[in-house]
């Protein structure tokens, strides 16, 4: 679809969101998140709670009271609730149902692919009669491709764990740490082909912890030529702007109060400086198979709005 067919200066959207109902470090219920998006005049919202991790050593410290079965059931309950809200609020907001990935090596690719299978059965706790519930499972319409761990160590949970990754994975070299991050991100993007890429440079989140430990004068954080090559390679896999790549907006909200976080005139100025003329939002497809040559994915279609016409609060 051409941009001229989809111009609408009232469009506002995000495809990366969480709620305290299904994420321990977020706040509010999933319905409160949806209601907040409606109150702030969002026209489209992607729900993207974390996928369930599948080994006990992948649990975050805040999840010590949970089991792998708990995470699987929580995820199934999330998708069921997302489908309920999608129907309940369909006349007020376009909701698309997705999830945010984790990555622990190549095995994660198969796991992620299985999660979005259209005929996947619901999980029931180990020891149940069949191990699955035959109730039809709602469709996963899109994926946010994100990397939160390096060799099993969380890089976004705390400075302490970030420094552990710095020592254990980076061997005391922040450049090596970044190389591993972008290499694993490349494997994730290539293997999963997510519709949306989440926080591309998450590895920078706690970089100041390394600077404080080593010293600002020793670690300034400028990317070397090799690191820039890895960044460019990963962007090329997604498809850079010149090759038809599409830009969207997301806030990675962690509760109703975060909806539209940093959606302000500064963001609009940034888009202009970067030469981003159009941004894209997702709508559900009537048919799961895209027609030839369309700007579509399997279950969602990308439509554009001029960046200059976006109205942020």
TrEMBL record:
GO function term, MF aspect, one: histidinol-phosphatase activity
Entries under InterPro entries matching the protein: Histidinol_P_phosphatase_HisJ, PHP_dom, Pol/histidinol_Pase-like
GO BP, sorted A to Z: L-histidine biosynthetic process
Residue span(s) of domain PHP: 15-237
This protein's UniProt keywords: Amino-acid biosynthesis, Histidine biosynthesis, Hydrolase
Coiled coil, from the record: none
KW Hydrolase (keyword) present: yes
Enzymatic class: hydrolase
EC number assigned by the record: 3.1.3.15
Gene3D superfamilies in alphabetical order: Metal-dependent hydrolases (3.20.20.140)
Reactions accelerated catalytically: L-histidinol phosphate + H2O = L-histidinol + phosphate
Pathway named in the protein's UniProt entry: Amino-acid biosynthesis; L-histidine biosynthesis; L-histidine from 5-phospho-alpha-D-ribose 1-diphosphate: step 8/9
Keyword Secreted annotated: no
Pfam entry (one): PHP
Assigned GO CC terms: cytoplasm
Family designation: Belongs to the PHP hydrolase family. HisK subfamily.
Protein name: Histidinol-phosphatase
The organism's taxonomic lineage, starting at the top: Eukaryota, Fungi, Fungi incertae sedis, Mucoromycota, Mortierellomycotina
